[in-house]
Amino acid sequence: MSRGERFRIAGGRVYDPANQVEGEVRDVCIEDGRIVASVPDGSPTLDARGMIVMPGGVDIHSHFASSSCNHARRLVPEEHGADPAPAPNLAHDASSRSGTGGTVPSTFTTGYRYAGLGYTTVFDAAVAPLLARHSHAELEDTPCVDGGIFILMGNDEYLLRLIAAGERERARDYAGWLLGATGGYAIKIVNPGGIEAWKSGQRNVNGLDDPLATNRVTPRAILETLADAGNQLGLPHPVHIHCNNLGVPGNAEVTLASMRTLEGRRVHFTHLQFHSYGGPGWKSAAAPIMEYVNTHPEISVDVGQVMFGPAATITADGPVEYLLHKSSGRKWVNIDIELETGCGIVPFLYKDKAAVAALQWSIGLELFLLSQDPWRVVLSTDHPNGGSFLSYPALIQLLMDRSVRDERLKQVNPKLLAGSALADGIGREYTLNEIAIVTRAGPARLLGLTHKGHLGPGADADVTVYNHDSDVARMFSSPRYVVKNGSLVVEEGHLRRAPLGRRLRLQPPYDEAILPHLRRFFDAYSTVSFENFPVSGIPADPQPLSS
To answer: How far apart are CA 217 and CA 211, in angstroms?
Structure first.
C-alpha cells in the first residue's frame, strides 16, 4: 500500500488521546495520505484485531541532523564496525542504503530506525544558523520521518547587541528573519549568555543576573527577550530553553529562577533531568521542580531521561562539555561557531554502578512519575545525550511497570538516592493512553502540529500498529505495521518502504526596516555575505503560525 491508496486498518484497539479515544475497538481509514472518516466497502484492509493502534510517534527533542552530529560520528569510528547497518530489503526491489549505527547513526540508518520504532516526526533541537544548510542536507537524506530544526539564538552576537541597546522589538524582528532565513521551526536557547562569556575568555555565567563582560547583557534579559519574541511572532512552539548550569549540583536553583522569571509566558524547558539537581553535593530536586511545573500550565517540558549504556553528549553548551572532558578524560571536540554559538561533543558511558549516573536515571523517572499533566511532559532521552532513541521502549516499560522499575532500582548504585522520591517508592504506572500522550499527542500539540499526533479526519496518515504484548519493551521496540503519510513503510515488523519525509519550517513576519542594519553588521563582522546566508531551495511549504 503506497501513498494515494485508500485502505482501512480494521479492528484494532485505538489510543487517540487528542480525540478522547482510549482503547476503543474501531477502524482507522486512510485515503491520499490523510485520515478520513470512512472508505468504501471493499477497500484494502490491514487486519489489526487484537493489536494496539496509535498515531505515529513525535520526537520533540533529538540531535540527529546537524554538523555537530557529523562531527560526533567521526569522533567514534570504533562504533561503525561494531554496529553496522546493512541496507534493508525494501519492497519492489526499491533501492536502499546501508550505513552505520551506534549512538549517532548515519542519516539513512536514523530514518530507518526511527520508523522501526513507529516514529514518523522528529526535530533536531539545536542548529547554529550558519550551519542550517548542512542540517537541511541531512534531513533530505533521512527517510521515513518528517523533520525540522530549532535555531540557536541565545548567544548570538547581533541579538546580544540589540538587547544591550534596549531594542527588543528589533530583536523580535531579527528572530523572525533568522527563522525564515534558516528554514527553522522554533527558537532555541542554550545556556543564555554562558557560551558567549566562555568563548570571550570570561568564566561561564552562573546566575540569571551575571552580566556578560562585553556588553553587560544578562541571562535574564536574553530569556525575557526571546520568550516574548516567540510569543509575539505567534510561533507554534514556544521558546525552547536549555537553562544555565546544566549538569551542575545545585542547578535546580537557577532552573526555578528561570521558570519564575518567565511566569505567565508560554515556554518549554528541555531535558529537565539535567537541570534538576539539588545541592550542596548531588541529590534530587525533582520534587520541587515538578511541583512548580504542575502548578504553572504555561510551562511544558521534556525529560531527557538518562538510560544506562553508551551515549554521545552533543550540545552547544561548550563550557559544560569542557568540564565533562576534563572530569572523564574522554576525547572531545570543541567548536566555535563564529558570531552565533559554540559546540562540544564528548562520547560517554552511563554505568548503573556509578552513583551520579544512577541519580540522573532516578531523577528522570521521578519527573515523569510526579507529573500531574502528561500533556506537558514529553518523553525524550535528549538523544544521544542521555541515551539513544532506541532505548525508548525500555523507558516506556519503566514507566508502565513498577515491578520492572523496582527491580532495576535494586541494581543501581544507591549512594546518592537516599531521600529521593523514587527510592521512597512511587507506585504510579503509566497507562497506554498516557504513553500515547507523552510520545505522540502531547509533543504534537506542544509543537502546534495540528495534523499530527492524532487519528481524526484530516490528520496526516501517520499510524503505528503494535502487537499486544505483556512485555512492554518488546511491544514498543517492534511495531507490526507503520504507516507514514499513507504509505505502509513497516509491514509484518520489517521495513518495506522508505519514502522521503517532509520539511517542517516557518516563515514568520518581520519589519524589513531591520535589513539595512543587519546587512551592515554582516559586512563588518561575518565571513559569510548577507546574500549567501539564507538557505534556499528548502522543499516544503511553511507551516502556519499561531493566531
So the answer is: 5
